[in-house]
Amino acid sequence: MSAPLTSLDRPNSYIGRSVPRPNAKRLLAGRGRYISDLKLPRMLHAAFLRSPHAHARIVVIKTGEARALEGVHLVATGADLAEICTPWVGTLDHFKGMTSSPQLPLPLDRVVWAGQAVVAVVAESRAIAEDALELIEVDYEDLPLVVDIDAARQAGGPVINPGTANNVCFRSQLDSGAVDDAFANAAHVVEEELSFGRHTAVTLEPRAIVADYDPSAGMLTVHHATQTPYQFQDLYSRHYGIPEARVRVIATDIGGSFGMKLHVYHEDMAVVGLSILLGRPVKYVADRIESFVSDIHARDHRVRARMALDAKGEILAMDVVDLTAIGAFSTYPRTSVVEGNQVIRLIGGPYRFKNYRATLEVLFQNKVQTSQYRAVGHPIACAVTERLVDMAASKVGLDPFAIRALNVIADDAYPQTSPTGYRFEALSHQVCLKRLHQMMNYDALRAEQADLRKRGVYRGIGIATFIEITNPSPAFYGVGGARISSQDGAILSLTPSGEVRCMISVTEQGQGTEAIISQIVADQLGVAQEHVKVVTGDTEVTPHGGATWACRGAGIGGETALQATRALKRNILEIAALILQEQPSALDIIDGQVVDATTRNQRLPISEIARIAYFRSDTLPPGTQAQLTVSHHFAPQGYPFAFTNGIQGCVLEVDVETGFIKLLMHYVVEDCGRIINPMLVDEQLRGGVVQGLGAALFEECRYGDTGQLMNGSLADYLVPMSVEMPDIEIAHVETPTADTALGAKGVGEAGTAAASACVLNAVNDALAPFGATINSIPITPTIVLKALKRF
Amino acid sequence: MSGFDQALLDEADETVRVRLIVNGRKVACEVAPRETLVDCLRNQLELTGTHAGCEMGACGACLVQLDGRAVHSCLMFAVQADGAEINTIEGLTESGVMADLQAEFHRRNALQCGFCTPGMLINAQELLSQLAQPSREQIRDALSGNYCRCTGYEAIVDAIDAVAKARSGGGGAT
Lengths: 791, 174
Description:
The complex is a heterodimer. By secondary structure, chain A is of the alpha+beta class. Chain A is built from 20 helices and 29 strands. By secondary structure, chain B is of the alpha+beta class. In chain B, strand 3 and strand 4 (69-72) form a beta hairpin.
């Protein structure tokens, strides 16, 4: 009971406190307002006829019978929508030489993946629209296919985009120099080719959109299950020629997103066009099978990498080639190249070495697009690096902890610049390594492993160090010409009753944005958290901003809220000072009361200041204009990214008879800078880890030779379920960024970044007695048995 | 005409009157025979707390209580539920029978986007009605038909575990 007082003991201190999310009660009561729940007057429903072919010419589309069906209001083809929608191209200027074909909501003459939407039907119900789909006939003429990476690279093979010489979307090279020399002089070289399957986000709520065009007002309102409403406001405005201020995008509760819901999808763009053509609200909710064939997929890399080391085990150089296949187009507006670009730049990130060379080749194929999904590029970069580090440890004769301790950038050596050009402000690899060693009780685990091996039980222990890109600056998309904001905005008001309303551009998908923003506002203003109402996700109401992507909610959105709150507090204290005949600097606010800054004696409730300012401004001195609403924007400056770091460990058991892997325990040590809500941070990490574990063991979009997705349902595509998942122990190190007053960095992708690398290392550790190695993800039982030469 | 069977479309137009007791109230709906129970609850009765996630019984987002037992409302046609008593998350919230579970989920942030949560709660309630003091393994096993993409499950397991202990410790719950 006599624990020393901490900063959390002062009144209204919410930064650093595990408070529950205020909006979670609604969701628990079944009162979520997801877009899929929305019903508007005169609303119609869209459904799409999809291509059964992965690559084919559209010869003719016969829609007469569908149009005649009772309840059908519109049947639209590519040509109908092309009349009102301008095409888009998924390239960015700073990726020099990048190409991708123009895209339209529905194709004009050619389909490029199996599952691509070809014809839209709008009817009085989804069921009628689907009935009508069955009455449409499309004649196709098959075209030569490109299904895998090797086929995409084959000289003289089929080319997906007419008028281009090959299937290359983008090539890039990094070279810090002297790599060949380093390899020539190395005491040890390890080399591996690793492959990473395609997987997809599988948000529990599929994509959902209701577009509502009112021709009399020239106003388009789109209720859209997305993370980035401002981006879509811009896109709908520009591609449909509607002034930006007459496009409103509303994103209420979102049933999972993970980066998947910030890309332009053909169906979503079509639904906006269908609503414009009809002048009525049109709803489209993807069903699960449609989600599998039309949501972006992710990963799909093959990486050949080698690492040179000196005799002691110090890393000298790395040399990497990453091939990645992205589907038939590059996504818009963020492109499908960002992942590969991050892979080659993140590889080796935690380690101190100078000589690095990497080649990236991004290739088209006849599959649905891949693009940004949680922890873009991180799991690939981490798995490649950490697998090579483990291989090197084994070759040099060092323990996995020891080789990392020898090579990570020292905690006192910052700032640092990586050989790939990333600048690190301050990271904490050494302290994280030590903490993990302790948390895992590593020596005891190794002893237990040795004992169990004697009894034919094969446990593996894997660790993986990582860095994570967070708080991206305009250097991320802005420099490439994309209208994707890296700044955020907040409008903060003291209401007439003395409560606070904060309208902010960062959005909520369940990660707790509204909770942490209300914590920051309450903390900085000096009011109770329940008196702060946070409003997100409506472009008509909230100021323009980047919203939630790439782990920028807390670091950038939080800083925006903090600065806005300090401005409002100044204004409140100025009015208070006039009323109280005091200097503003002599006053403070605690629990909604203006107090003497030194004695903390209560002087006046802020509700009284609001009452006077709003209703009795005649009693204020002449010339006073009370500004109890402030608008504030914040854009990151200083470092281009706030890098975070951490390390994960896992323990698992491989059944060498069946190839099944049982995850026993997972550990995370993470440094995301200033922690605003420890409980929410832990839950972000746990959720992220499980997405990484799914990728490691279960999830893969499997295609047949004809480019058909073979496992496009939740019965066939394995996702992690509770019974397969381990408990996840978490510890924190806090190294705040000095670039902001708040000091927070992101944490949403950290869990996913290293989880699959841990599992890869642990499985290889378990199989070490057999001399078997695994170099692909996901690690299915078949892969394990093949490695053991038992299948 | 194509070979499409016009009779099928005509059948699709037909509706059947279905009578149910939903959340303690008698209701009657005109439903097409092909309409599932989850569609009827969501679209006709506007009880949108029940969610459709996979529409094949794999994800558990659509669980409701039918005659006291948890069932997948996506695997059942609305006509099959004729005469049944159904409780959805809305009714179960109003009656307060799972208020302790909801409070514990809230306290531990055992939800993020919340889309799986109504199904999770209904499954948790079902589990605790069958097994007063399940082990963590039994809880994980019982939840293995409920997909959550956000949480990593651990907080959900913790919440159910805590409620099981509180209910058993309280002595009154069955």
